[in-house]
## 1
Amino acid sequence: MKFLHKLWGYLEEILAGFFFVTGIALIFYGVMMRYIFNEPQAWVEELARYAIIWGTFLGFGLALRHNQHIQVDILYDKLKPSNKRILDLVATCLSIVFCLIYTYYGFILVENRYTSGMVSLDIGIPMWVVYLVLPISGVLFLLRFVERLVNILRGKDEEYANPLT
């Protein structure tokens, strides 16, 4: 089981990193072609945009895994550990509900784009492929929240490791 967990983490990092690096490389290529060689490539901007979007959405789970999401914790830091645990349970359960709704509507959007046959303007990529990142990222994000919920319930979170503090 630990092997699958590590593999999952590596795949998330590799895929998110791959799409980010690809997007940045395409932007660099586009700038070089436009300003140095005076031959702008219309497809570069569109493909770079999609690559960065995919990298961002696939990185949601990574940010959650490393607890790097934006959070306002002024009041949270003043709570007792037992109250923090309750608040974390409620927030995580609400986040799981959000991920389920997000994934469901992501699938609906992909299905609508697939049946409509819509394609992108410059390259002609089927838009359902572009929007496929929504349900994929939703499932990955959902799995990370379920993992977080299990850790909170087991008391494995660093925050709950020592209830005396």
## 2
Amino acid sequence: MDQQDTGAQARRTVNPSGMASPGGHYSHVSIANGLVFVSGQLPIDAAGTKLTDKPFEVQVEQVLSNLAAALSGAGSDVTKLVQVRVYIVDIGQWATFNEIYARWAGDTRPARAVVPVPALHFGLQVEVEAIALA
């Protein structure tokens, strides 16, 4: 866990164990002012394997597993989600995503946006970022 002081408010960053190392110059989680900001999570497993050739459903399950791990590593959880942003390559997969997400989130219903995009890194099909309470 990294600690960074931003002046009046301390901010800390977290890269939870059980998740692949970030693939760029960022942390999986940044915590500030009682909020947990989770960087975009791609369907990459803990060993760093990119699930490019796996079906959309498997990719969604991995992304949501990564999101849960990031939240847990920050001392938060799914019930504390405030906003979720979803990027999908094929908007035709929206219903499938929504079904898997609803099972995963249960009674939690944070604000959410689903954004169709032309492409994601490594040819992956879905990415999710979120904000939660600490």
## 3
Amino acid sequence: MIDTIIYDMGNVLIEWNPEKFLHLIETDEERIAKLRTAIFTSGYWPRQDTGELDADKAYHMSLALLDDSYQESLRQIYYHWYEYADVFSKMQDYAQELKKQGYKLFVLSNTAASYYDLAKKGYLPIDEILDGKILSYEVEMVKPDVAIYQYLLDKYGLEAQNCVFLDDIKGNIEAAQSLGMQGIQVLSENQALADLKVLLSKHGRLSEQ
């Protein structure tokens, strides 16, 4: 019986689309390409998720690859990217319903300290009802390393077979499934919600009532 829902953050609870954000912040393709290289191709951005760099260090390392005319655009990406993102409100609203039905809710995400900015500013209302969360930068492990999934299970005393994990990346789903969890790959908010509702209607807490 599934009694636990585990959510990734990016493209599950809130949009993560760096190309969209870059094109909203800059319009010149050459400048966009330089920003992309300095932030993402450089590897500085994902090193926030591993806990190696905080936003300030990553920002200044990226800026060192550019001239000062990029300073504000870099700042927008590093500190304000979520202001350009769509919130997956239907997914988070449904989580409220599931909580009322007695489901346990968790977040397991490759993310940095910006998670707390999103929660504080209202982009992650689900945070208020979570039973727990594992953020990669805090534990210095990242998906799809199975160790981070096992860490979640162990810390909160969860049984893998009672969990369903939602993530937008196939490899991350497969890692969860290797431990015995159910998995739903999020290709769109509506698709994921439909798949989750079908799964819970068959195997969820209320399916036998």
## 4
Amino acid sequence: MAKGKFYVVWEGREKGIFTTWAECEKQVKGYQGARFKSFPTEKEAKAAFANRPSSGAKKSGPKKSAKVKVDPSEIIWDSISVDVGSKGNPGIIEYKGVDTKTGEILFAHDEIPVGTNNMGEFLAIVHGLAYLKEQGSTKPIYSDSVTGMKWVKQKKANATLVRNKETAYIWELVERAEQWLHENRYENQIIKWQTESWGEIKADYGRK
């Protein structure tokens, strides 16, 4: 991202002007009908935000050539779903696992001072696997994070977050999760949640 870029979100989970693509993406990714555009100066961004979306604004949503949506009936309701809530990336993160059918919170981790979304997604999946193992359950786990799922499969979180005093806690949790994966076997499927077809994952924090 070019230094000094400003992102205007006219339609998204949260409308406004954002100074990083990560913040903007959080508002528009997977949001049906999102409208957003980048501007080189704050002045231009403010002027644009005060008016209707310009013709150059990007609009999210399925393309005309998009594949047929997945039938929600294909969801395995006897499962758990995990997701992360964040305030910045990197920033404060938290995660939880819920019953996919009822939304009941089965486990959760309080706010971690500094971490990344991907690290949180990884931890949430591993926590879910450990939780189900304790329950003697082979239920599947839904996650909307391709990266988190990949890291679990590899048994290694390839995060690039700098290691220092502020990030020591998240790294400790990640290393514990990696160790658990190396020491435990599981039969649970880890399935990608199809957000565009099914809506937000059931463990979503609802920060719209």
